[in-house]
Amino acid sequence: MAKRPVFVPNRTGSKLVTEVPVEFTWHPGMAASQKKKNVSALHEAAARNRGLPYILEISSKSERKAGTRLSAFHLPLCNDGYEAPLECWFQGSKVFQDGGPYTDLYHVSPREAKRDPRLRESGNLIAFRFEGRDYPLSPATAFYDWIYIRAIAPHSEWAQKLGRFDAFSDIEFNPAKSINCQARSCATFVALCWRDEVRACAEDFDHFVSLQSQSV
């Protein structure tokens, strides 16, 4: 058995997203087929035990094209006329004690960006630098969630499509090992859509943090 969260956007209240843990039968193995079995098992358990029957997997393992397109490896973010996958912007904006940001990672594949050895050899992460501004590590997921919202905000058609789902998952995300999660970011976007806050948050990191901080 394994336990993974699904993320439920909230229409009202101080909390933008509710993280719901779901226990399900785990299918071991690194093959894509095994990971897709785990997605199905997670969703079935969430429907059966948590009353969440309509979940979108946000990852390259998603059975739905929308879930794949909205993963960090595929979701494009355009900045100053240059477009690259969200994962590249995130990894290339990291500032460490002994180096960074390694902005050349904006121009490689998402897989290369995530696996670049400098990200593990440059000491502790201390900030993110993006568009000439430094962004803090706290709140813990704020920068990642914010650039995700920046990426998806121009595409208003997603608001209606995503609003139909009860929750969002990412089978690769293990809260015991990671902090940032594209499924949480997607759920946050939906919650902001319902509250008519997407544009304000996409344009102003501090405004987004003020809303996110209220939900902690």
Backbone CA Rg: 17 Å
Mean pLDDT: 95
The helicity comes to 40-55%
The major beta sheet can be summarized as: 3 strands, antiparallel
- Low-pLDDT parts are none
Shape: globular
Structure description:
The chain is α+β, with helices and mostly antiparallel strands and 216 residues long. The chain is built from ten helices and nine strands. It has helices spanning 32-50, 65-69, 86-92, 110-115, 118-121, 142-152, 157-162, 182-194, 198-203, 205-214; strands spanning 2-9, 17-24, 55-57, 76-79, 82-85, 94-96, 125-130, 133-135, 167-169. The protein has a three-stranded antiparallel β-sheet with strand order 6-7-8. A two-stranded antiparallel ribbon has the order 1-2. The chain has a two-stranded parallel ribbon with strand order 3-9. Helix 6 packs across helix 8.
Topology:
Blueprint: E1 2-9, E2 17-24, H1 32-50, E3 55-57, H2 65-69, E4 76-79, E5 82-85, H3 86-92, E6 94-96, H4 110-115, H5 118-121, E7 125-130, E8 133-135, H6 142-152, H7 157-162, E9 167-169, H8 182-194, H9 198-203, H10 205-214
Parallel strand pairs: 3-9
Antiparallel strand pairs: 1-2, 4-5, 6-7, 7-8
Helix pairs in contact: 6-8
